[in-house]
Design a protein that fits this description.
Two copies of one chain form a homodimer. By secondary structure, the first copy, chain A, is α/β, with parallel strands linked by helices. Chain A contains eleven helices and 15 strands. Chain A folds into two domains: 2-175, Peroxisomal Thiolase, Chain A, domain 1 (3-Layer(aba) Sandwich); 184-337, Peroxisomal Thiolase, Chain A, domain 1 (3-Layer(aba) Sandwich). The radius of gyration of chain A is 18 Å and the shape is globular.
């Protein structure tokens, strides 16, 4: 069950555990500073398929399979997977998971999908809806850029605020609480609100998403009565260089200094000096792969004890942008705790 | 908590209650046989807005507001809403709910969205993640037809198997179990699997979705050890005339005769003789509005005691179809019980 701390903020009395995780990344991501954290770097952007969409579906399925293999589970043992991606009608998930024979809750949170997936899968596990649940997401440079911005061959100039959609995927397997073992617990949750401060530039997503991240992080800190220093890291999804400065400022204005512990996966993914990625990485797979490849292993090893993962999504569509709409953001947060112990039934 | 009956099939020991519901439909839907069940029939297809997308967002927001008004709740009292729609990046929900200041879990299940929303919102309520949760979805003829098929002004001939995307929306408000009062309980749940038997015709959606509906309904009947006669109605989403025959046949082949109790919202929505709607209605709003306008009131009055609502979604995208992909279906199911009593904590 959950201990409800504030509106849409709760903690589990018997936290579900993350028992396995995996990530796969593309060639460019594998040439960046995070290269060593990926389980596999795929040199073929097509993943052996004919279309970019099939490539992304294949990547998502392979990532999930790898996470299953790591904990020696068969897909039939998963009660439900919470999954989504950036493509229209979430076809990365639909066609990726089609052969897997797993009950699926489709989710849409743009680049906040991984946190939303862990959140929803943890809720199912905490409720006792099954022994094992899962979450997976993905993004692919070539499916996202042509869908959201320009045809790939158009060669438009990218402004300094632009981010680079990562070709990457991350998957986690959760198990309902087992009092005997510790493990990484999903201990807390904050469901995001739609926040829109009027940014209209689809090449300036960090600025559009930062207010939503700040709203979610501050709501969680307030509800739990904690300070940023209580966490080894407060990880945002893909705000990039400009959005990261913004979110730290916005959180500071509400009385919390998170400069020392803030990390942004969009900033971490690429070396801006040599990789020409401007403001950083983006896409559902950006934070999904870095959380699964970097932060979860740190928690597993005990090198970190507790982190907040606040993934951020920009909820616009090209149609809405063409109609002059601004870009609403959303940020869902999960608290992840190493060597987790149940707090006892309330 | 939940009593887990089989993989992705569970029942609540303290079922959340549906305390309010509302539906709004368009002019054509208001000229059909279900006219009297809608809370409002909007004669202006633009809902006073400039674009079809803004029209759908407005309809979705107005429907939610109406459901809130009926139970005298303010939007700030809702802990979380589970919402989605058919438009790319679910912008009906994003822009529709933007001014409402409610934490949102975005979901994507195509036309199965209303059942997925009730399912997810009931899980949050059952877990104690808040006193009130909600679900809403919508579809609009003009946003869906041009996105999934042809430009509206193209005037393509519709084959006999085609369905008509409804302009309609439905919303429900849930409250966590209150032992003192009965009310309509969300008593059981079956999460859908992706099922694809190879249909490639986007004008033949009923055939693409029927196998998923049959899979979900049979899994629920098997897990609960019940027969179709245990329910006053087994309601499918929008299989239409052809898909309805198929689902009854598929369920029959697995040993269950549901002919006497099967109802399909796509069949119910229009008068095929006079409204030129071919195989029937479709869209997220089709079953959402008929469940909220017809079946929930029947349960409320005690005219029905227990129904299964298995909404059905076709998970294709135009891009996938153009690449030659077949159409995967999914169906999520909720069991709704009148004058619901808790079964006691396990």
């Amino acid at each position: 069950m959950v201990r409800n701390l504030a509106r849409a903020v709760f903690q589990y009395t018997e936290p579900p555990r993350i028992i396995s995780y995996a990530c796969i990344a593309g060639k460019k991501e594998g040439e960046g500073p995070m290269a060593s954290c990926f389980d596999r770097i795929e040199p073929d952007a097509h993943f052996g398929q004919e279309t970019w969409e099939q490539a992304e579906s294949t990547m998502q399925r392979q990532t999930l399979q790898l996470a299953l293999d790591k904990c020696s589970l068969d897909s039939k043992e998963i009660s439900c997977i919470c999954a989504g991606d950036l493509m229209n009608q979430c076809i990365g998930t639909t066609y990726g998971l089609r052969p897997m024979d797993i009950p699926v809750l489709g989710i849409y949170g743009a680049c906040s999908t991984m946190a939303e997936g862990i959140l929803t899968a943890s809720l199912l596990a905490a409720c006792g809806a099954g022994e094992y649940t899962a979450a997976v997401t993905s993004s692919h440079f070539s499916t996202a850029e042509r869908q959201f911005r320009f045809p790939l061959s158009y060669g438009g100039t990218r402004p300094p605020t632009a981010q680079w959609t990562c070709t990457a995927s991350g998957a986690v397997i959760l198990q309902k609480s087992d009092k005997e073992k510790g493990g990484i617990g999903v201990t807390g949750v904050c469901i995001g609100k739609i926040v829109d401060l009027g940014v209209t530039d689809a090449s300036h997503m960090g600025a559009a998403m930062a207010p939503a991240a700040a709203d979610t992080i501050v709501r969680y800190l307030e509800a739990t009565g904690t300070k940023p220093s209580a966490y080894d890291a407060i990880v945002t999804g893909d705000l990039g260089i400009i959005g990261s400065e913004l979110v730290r400022d916005l959180v500071m204005k509400q009385g919390y200094d998170m400069n020392a512990v803030h990390r942004d996966c969009g900033v971490m993914m690429f070396d801006g000096e040599t990789q020409d990625t401007h403001a950083g990485g983006s896409g559902c797979g950006c934070s999904a792969s870095i959380v699964c490849g970097h932060f979860l292993p740190l928690l597993q090893r005990g090198a970190m004890k507790k982190i907040l993962y606040a993934a951020t999504g920009a909820l616009m569509s090209p149609t809405a942008s063409q109609q002059g709409e601004s870009i609403p953001g959303i940020s869902h947060l999960v608290e992840l705790t190493a060597d987790c112990q149940d707090s006892g039934i309330e």
